[in-house]
Amino acid sequence: MRATNRLSSQFVKTAPVGKHCDGAGLWLVKRDDGGAQWVQRVTVHGRRREMGLGGYPALGLANARKLSERWRNVASAGRDPVKEREAEERAARREDITLEILTADAFESRKAELKGDGTAGRWLSPLTLHVLPRLGRVPVTDLDQRDIRDTLAPIWHTKADTARKALNRLSIVLRHAAALGLDVDLQATEKAKALLGKSRHVPQNIPAMTWADVPGFYASLETPTLTHLALRLLILTGLRSAPLRNIRLDQIEGDLWTVPAEAMKGRKGATEAFRVPLSLEAQRIIDLARPHARNGFLFPSVRKGVISDATMSRLMERRGLEARPHGFRTSLRTWLAEATDAPHEVAEAMLAHVVDGGVVRAYRRTDYLEQRRALAERWADHVTGGAGQVVKLAGAG
């Protein structure tokens, strides 16, 4: 019997169910349902590989033999025909490996690590605003440091933090592409950073109100609107705007507000919820806000969701104030430093800052709740018109 070309066109048409060898690793596999498939078997580096060539009759005997010869030659050259064909298919679908497609794929892979599964859009926004409009259609395998430099140069000195985040996200996308087997330059972002040079941008701190001026501003928020009440609770608790605006009724129990871990920015590495002691004044503000509650949220928006950070900022802006809501955290921290003898770790805990490393935190299993409860009450006394005198604390424990 011949070593190759064993099958005839007539036999292929009427072949019974089973596997039929044409020679040189080419097989016709006839199925029970009447369909048939051409399969090529090769050996690469001592490893047996099997690849489908196509179905019969779409792929006839003559063309199946041509494909068989082609992939045998690839295997003879020491290359894996299966991987080589995959690479060719990717090259033929270059739109599937564009930066835009790979960015979306990388984002999907990281969603579980992001707050709220990344629904706020902050992870993607540096790329969608400043990178993808120019480079979105470029295949990641073609992306180099010059492309990245030219794209980020316009914001490198004016929006340094955004540009830095864009570089970071790009690096993640490129690593994701490499993990998929694409030939990308993993050093492209670092090379682009070297080409861009040192940023001239000088970071500006968020303007803050001096702690001595806070009582006057607090007193001016006398109308029980959602914006006034939210600002008052923000001042009293010292938390960031996001967890404050998203506070839910089921998070409040008596004089304690428990914020879910995923809602707390700046506590990377912390896996537990954060407990916020509520002063008597804070509890009073919450009670005033309860009639406004909707869908479980204490500070709902008129339309959908919760009130925005811009709502509180605009109120202060309309009053001609330079300070912004986030700055009240600075007001509180400065008061803690200048008007109390609170230990550093307790003062930092008041602002939900994570201090020390994971090992230290594992052994120091306290959130200083009782010390913070006393400080919260004294801070409330100050902002409501008290003297704000020096607070003496018991040992930090």
UniProtKB/TrEMBL annotation:
Domain Tyr recombinase span(s) in chain numbering: 204-376
Keyword Metal-binding: no
Source organism of the structure: Roseovarius tolerans
Family, similarity comment: Belongs to the 'phage' integrase family.
Underlying gene: intA_4
Keyword Transferase on entry: no
Domain of life: Bacteria
Name of the protein in its database record: Prophage CP4-57 integrase
Record-linked Gene3D superfamilies: 1.10.150.130, Integrase, DNA-binding domain (3.30.160.390), Intergrase catalytic core (1.10.443.10)
Keyword annotations: DNA integration, DNA recombination, DNA-binding
Example GO molecular function: DNA binding
Swiss-Prot/TrEMBL GO biological process terms: DNA integration; DNA recombination
